[in-house]
Amino acid sequence: MTAYVVRRLWQMIPTLAGVILLIFFLFNWVGGDPAQVLAGKISNPEQIANIRKQLGVDQPYYVQLWYFVQQVFTFDFGRSWSTNEEVSRILLTRVGPTLTIMVPVLIIETFLAVIFAIMVAYVRGTLTDRTIMILCTTAMSISFLVYIIVGQYLFGFQWGIFPVQGWSESFTKNLVTYAPLPIILAVAVGLAPQLRLYRSFFLEEINQDYVRTARAKGLPEKKVMMKHVLRNALIPILTNIGIYLPSVFVGSFLLEVFFSIPGLGREIITAVNRSDFPVIKAVTVYLAVLTMIINLLVDVMYKFVDPRVSFK
Amino acid sequence: MKRLPFAVLALATLLATAHPALSEPKKVLRMAFRTAETGFDPQKVFDRYSVGICESLFEPLLTYDYLARPVKVVPLTAEAVPQPEEGGTRYTFRIKPGIYFADDPAFKGKKRELTAQDVAYSIRRFRDPKLASPYEWLFENKLIGLDELAEKAKKTGTLDMDTPIPGIEVRDRYTVSFKLKEPDFNFAYVLAMPNVVPVAREVVELYPDDMMGHPVGTGPFVLKEWVRRSKIVLEKNPNHRGYELDVRYADPNDPWDKAAIEALRGKRLPNLDRVEIYPIEEEQPRYLAFVNREHDILDETPFEFIEQILPNGKLAPALAKQGVRVFREEAPETTYDLFNIDDPTLGGYTPEKVALRRAMVLAHDRDQEVGIVRKGQANAAQTPVPPGVVGFDPAFLSHQQDHDPARAKALLDMFGYVDSDGDGWRDLPGGKPLRISYKYNTGSQEQRQLALLWVKSMAEIGIRVDAAAVQFADLLQDKRVGKFQMASSAWTADYPDAQNFLQLLYGPNTGQSNEARFKLPEYDRTYEKSQRYPDSPERNALYRDMSRLILAYAPWRLGVHRVFNHLQYPWVKAYKKHPILYTNFKYLDIDVAEQQAATKK
Predict the structure, then answer these.
(1) Plot region of A187 (φ>0 → left; ψ -120 to 50 → alpha; else → beta)
(2) Looking at domain B38-210, which of 3.30.1490.20, 3.20.20.70, 3.30.200.20, 3.40.190.10 is its CATH number?
(3) The whole model's pTM is what?
(4) Does B476 touch chain A if contact means CB atoms closer than 8 Å?
(5) Which residues of A touch B38 (CB under 8 A)?
(6) What is the pLDDT of residues A194-249, one digit of tens each?
(7) Does domain B331-562 have CATH number 3.10.105.10?
(8) Which residues of A fall within a CB distance of 8 Å from B278?
(9) Per-residue b/e over B480-509, b at no fewer than 16 CB within 10 Å?
């Protein structure tokens, strides 16, 4: 296993190099000149050149690229161009609120999706199954933005069950007061597609020969579903969670913007609007590294879920 | 032993009465900003929200009277508004003694008084290449000796803050005198800008990399808490000397003035103990937070909700019933569409080129812009100068900017802009195709709608316009270097004088603020002549002449002056929106009992 992990870590280097090149060239070709924005209302070419010099964007591309590579490997992305705040501090202070929302969303959504999926898979073809599938399709057809706007208006304003928006310094207060409505809305949006997907995973397993054999052996249906079907369906479910997991660390910018949550998603949007390249670079690299590590962890976890899997 | 409970009770009563803060609830104002702040280094920030916070943390030498309309410059940390000396080239300020900065570790536990050296240091700081201040232009080619220092700094990388220069003369602890290269009768306005405020050198030197996060001023509030782009908390500055509301320039017939005077009678400002500001970019949560009474003020009511809030221009009954008041403000800003005067198709000063631009202006349907895109919350601009600005002439009407497609077509026909090849679109005189590109900011839905309005309006007279969305930074760059044919733009008053708007078409400003690249000798001469006059009928006449030249040569299609609606609950006292200053925290008061009762409902 150690050899496998080392090999996978080694393979991350070219991927990371690709990410670095992609971000660098995308920003330089389509990102616009940040000095134009930072120069203010009235400025002359000399002042713009001075700002470009201070930002380092006057350097040849290969020098800028080399700085970027150094930043990635030292985890020091310098300071934000628009606010002069340390980028590492931005990431550290923003990831907490993002996780406060996204971790419960992941847990609740996965739990509910697995439970409902196994239930509807068990009663497949019945009126209940069809009704739930129609509801899921309808729910998936509605934009997340609509959920947020309507949910915020009804739950936050009309019925006053939750605050319209806000965030505090207390984790408990955030979790109990400010996070529930965004969590509910995110779960409501994410549940339908997950449920449909997981239902198909379960149906595929239910139709396997080993399930027929288990039933023929006289195993109770509960045991067949929970022990055999669930365990085998966990592999594609785990893969799906693995794909979804990096987004947990980045957050939903729509939720964060509408509910004034000081998370990473909102920070990314602000950085893009302000052409704040150090923040964009840091977040993108952080996300790329995170995705690779999570993929590796998911692959390692396969071994524990399915003994047939071997590390080669 | 029996006496102990009595003693405890007596002590508690004594403490409560001796320290009103212990017994009185705090006056807390809560509101949202439409956009996130960037920081609070006054010489560095230029977005209005960050500058708005700086208004409460720092104090310039001069400021604007809260109630006076049109606006009036009054002294703040200076003892008086200086009279121009030596033909408008010298201004001498005497600072009031006994003004102190807020406490900070930079002062090593001592009280730090504001001095003339702080003013001199802060003005020099604008030209420091390390700072790269976006307001450097305020002191460019202005003070004798400062340009030379800035030139040297370009080589050394640091501005010499110590060598005396004739342009900034510190005469004693409290007196500073500025010597200008040319007469400037608007210099007092510059020194009333919330960016042109004294900062302490020790603070700048202690936090060289994070002045944005360490604002230390002499203002009525201090920055107590700052969760960047999420929450800004200001609290009363214990070192502040306090103000009294100046009622000399109040309008006795203005209900806002009367209410403010009534609310603040006999009170020492500031009244608020704490101000909590939440940047909320989305309109719905900002609006709902106000109607849910989570916020006390809704500045700049979102246009999306204007029909719910102000149906037919009147406050909605549900809000009126709660005592909500609306302050309508015609902002001191002008939007406009630029024609690039250097462009071979659209530009130039020959009759046929001017005719083309004027025809396009006549064909552009500005009424639709006001009614549909801006939901009626704007007034059509007649001159580049917005209302509320010195030099604005309410009687000035520009029929050259009316919507009149028939006149536009006649003008085009007369100068040979006809459909030569029969493809349904007009061509240039001589038959070459006429096709114009209009650049706008890709990130703005409103800008997109305005661009499409241009496409539609021009199609009606047979001119083909292509709307091209570009990144904000690219649009700025293209406008600076003249890489466009038409583009959208806007200008908000830095100071309330028409000169601040009319300089946008001054020839030597091409490549900077003159984005249209308009270079008309007659206009430039008139502009230069106007600078030699203080505010006077003579100067206003020159301003009018410049407006006429703009209409005649049409380097711009004048847009609108936007109207903002600001809402407050009845427990917010003494509210009045200032056209130049963005925030007014030091003047506001809160009826805490009323606020708490309403919030509990």
Answers:
(1) alpha
(2) 3.40.190.10
(3) 0.88
(4) yes
(5) 82-83, 274
(6) 999 999 999 999 989 999 999 999 999 888 988 889 888 888 898 888 888 888 88
(7) yes
(8) 165-166, 260
(9) bebebbbbbbebbbbbbbbbbbbbbbbbeb
